[in-house]
Design brief:
By secondary structure, the chain is an alpha+beta fold. The protein has a domain of 198 residues: 2-Layer Sandwich (Ribosomal Protein S5, domain 2), CATH 3.30.230. The chain is built from 10 helices and 12 strands. Helix 2 packs across helix 4 and helix 7 packs antiparallel against helix 8. It binds alpha-D-galactopyranose. The site of alpha-D-galactopyranose (GLA) has 11 residues, from helix 4.
Length: 384
């Protein structure tokens, strides 16, 4: 196989940074719950070299786009020509900004990147980009941070600079991926543990091709609804810090103080956290079928209670569940478009992918991009 770095310049800093797919635990990370993602074998690759001045130049080979900004202009969010930074530019600039705010040295840099991670598909291309730049600036600056601290700074870049109020799951998974393992992550305590994936099952991603421009605002709205649930429930449960602290019985008892829509959001979060905990037992017992049932229940909840699905995603899930060898299927990531994730018996994976592709084409007249992925190592400098 040819070296995927071949198309990048032969510079001293080389970083490889994976996307992630979340198996279970959706929209719970910003409620301090537990999640279960894997880092995947689709990557942002970055070659970089430090500069003597404070300019940052970035070329994206896939987007055929170049960007230049000065470190002294970071607060203004403008490029070297004074134009507002927008789109993907906000991520590297946001990382530089967050690292500096954290008191770390950020140097001028030339960077070229190439990626086989689809953008806006719910596979965390933004977190992969953020971690790639954080590691490049770490190497250039000669300082060293724990992976969790790097992930948190990248989350800060996305929250405060790019304006998406995301939780920590994506940056965590990108930084901590372990080959062949799912990552159980408690977003409150920050404790995490790799759990072996069922060896006879394959993880299949199906990209619906649907992209929602407004994903960020829908996402922030859901987050605000969860916060509203907590503040209303606090009138009855004064010690409640987040929906993580609520159980199903309490929601039954006190849920009448919530507007119906907000109660549905809270119910999703409470039950989804419980599903993650059950799913860990399934992994420990190598129970792929049990895991799959939890995935299907998770999808139904995202569709009916959290309301972040689309007909195309529901169609992909419904079709998948009817195909032989499929243990479970659900939308993955924020929703409003993007991908589904499927757990499929390894021997049936090829037929599954072909059938699913045909069914989606028949039902929606659209082409889904469907592929197997391997749980992979987290972001790192090449040669380390
Ligand atoms: C996006 C966010 C994550 C998480 C998921 C939903 O991927 O970046 O923090 O909230 O949505 O689970």
């Amino acid at each position: 196989m040819s070296d995927p770095f071949e198309q990048l310049p032969d510079w001293e800093i080389r970083v490889i940074s994976p996307g992630r797919v979340n198996l279970l635990g959706e929209h719970v990370d910003y409620n301090q719950g537990m999640v279960l993602p894997i880092a995947i074998d689709r990557f942002v690759r970055l070659a970089a070299r430090p500069r003597a001045d404070d300019l940052v130049t970035i070329e994206s080979l896939d987007l055929k786009s170049r960007l230049q900004f000065k470190l002294e202009d970071l607060d203004q969010r403008v490029d070297a020509q004074g134009k507002a930074l927008a789109g993907w530019a906000l991520y590297p600039a946001g990382v530089a900004w967050a690292l500096r705010a954290g008191g770390l040295e950020v140097r001028g840099l030339d960077a070229v990147l190439a990626s086989d991670l689809p953008i806006g598909a719910g596979l965390s291309s933004s977190a992969a980009l953020e971690l790639a730049f954080a590691l490049a600036w770490q190497a250039a600056g000669g300082w060293q941070l724990e992976r969790m601290a790097l992930a948190q700074l990248c989350q800060r870049a996305e929250n405060a600079y790019a304006g998406v109020a995301c939780g920590l799951m994506d940056q965590f998974a990108c930084a901590h991926g372990v080959a062949r393992h799912a990552l159980y992550f408690d977003t409150r305590s920050l404790q995490w543990q790799p759990l072996p994936m069922p060896p006879d099952s394959a993880v299949v991603i199906a990209d619906s091709g649907m992209r929602r421009q407004l994903a960020a605002s829908g996402y922030n709205q859901r987050r605000a609804e969860c916060e509203q649930a907590v503040s209303l429930l606090r009138t009855r449960l004064p010690d409640l810090r987040s929906l993580r602290d609520l159980n199903a019985a309490q929601l039954d008892e006190y849920g009448d103080c919530l507007p119906p829509e907000i109660r549905k959001r809270a119910r999703h979060v409470v039950e989804e956290i419980a599903r993650v905990q059950q799913a860990c037992f399934c992994l420990v017992q190598d129970d792929a079928a049990g895991f799959g049932r939890l995935m299907a229940a998770g999808h139904a909840s995202l569709r009916d209670l959290f309301e972040v699905s689309l007909p195309e995603l529901d169609g992909l899930v419904e079709a998948a569940l009817s195909i032989e060898g499929c243990h479970g299927a659900r939308l993955t990531g924020a929703g409003f478009g993007g991908c589904t994730v499927n757990l499929v018996a390894r021997h049936a994976a090829v037929d599954f992918m072909n059938t699913l592709e045909k069914r989606y084409q028949q039902d929606f007249g659209r082409q889904a991009l469907i592929y197997c992925c391997q749980p992979s190592r987290g972001a790192h400098l090449l040669g380390t």
